[in-house]
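<amino_acid_chain>
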Amino acid sequence: MEREELFQKVAEIISEKLNIPIEDIDEDSHLIEDLGADSLDAFDLVMVFEDEFGIKLEDAEIENLLTVKDIVDLLSKKLAEQE
């Protein structure tokens, strides 16, 4: 999956889950400070990403997910490992 396509899918999921306009989301968006996510939102997002992309994210990896770019980078790495 191309990075831009991956970003678009991640942005769609975040937009839907956090009920915010997709155009308000970019790679530099901070999940908590910019997008208003809380820890429960973050947990829900991780579950959706795991289901959507068929991957497992470890707790240590999840702790480092602060921005949309962090999510896209990690998902990109995980998906590449599956190929």
Summary: The chain is about 60% helix and 0% strand. The helical segments are 3-18, 39-53, 59-62, 68-82. The domain at 3-82 is CATH 1.10.1200.10 (Non-ribosomal Peptide Synthetase Peptidyl Carrier Protein; Chain A). The chain has one domain: 3-82.
